Amino acid sequence: MIKIMLVDDQELIRESLAFVLNTDPELEVVALAKNGQEAVELSKEKKPNIILMDIQMPIMDGITATKFIKATHPEIRIMILTTFQEIQHVIDALSIGAEGYLLKAMHPKDLIAGIKLVHTGGTLLPNDLAKILVQQIQPSVTQAVQAPTPYDLTEREVQVLECLAHGLSNKDTAERLFLSEGTVKNYISSLYHKLDVKNRLQAVNKAKEEDLI
To answer: Against a cut of 0.70, is the pTM above it?
Structure first.
């Protein structure tokens, strides 16, 4: 039996996940925590095999809680479970010993399969996130010698600009580039400033005129 603790500040998510996971005869949810501090305390008492850990929570966030738990109970395997798709969260989580990074929107069957994989010693990352992680951490010689883009746009800003050109919303852009919506909004604001435009249409038109995309 794989003992699981769920850590999330939203009661509905905790209860829903507990219901889904308890339908599998090999899994047992032994504890629920609404913040990182509770998770640290309950990990000592309940000694779960697997912890599904949210990131953004009050009192203590998931990254900090993971650090504490890994320091005292390194045998507990922790899977970061979140709606945030910013790649830096993946790097932070893996650097402190987390064994997996999952999105809450994934199918329950995939979640259960992922838990069993991690329990047997595996590390789990969605394929798309893994590809971006590799791109983020490997040295980019090509970028080092590449001439700066017109208007001093970064590679990520160009990617956001291309999404705007395809008519994607902030939410769709965030999902495609594995960013939070807030981060996408920041990139769009930066684009407006650099291109000296006031809206999406002007940004896209200028980008096409200047061969930026």
So the answer is: no
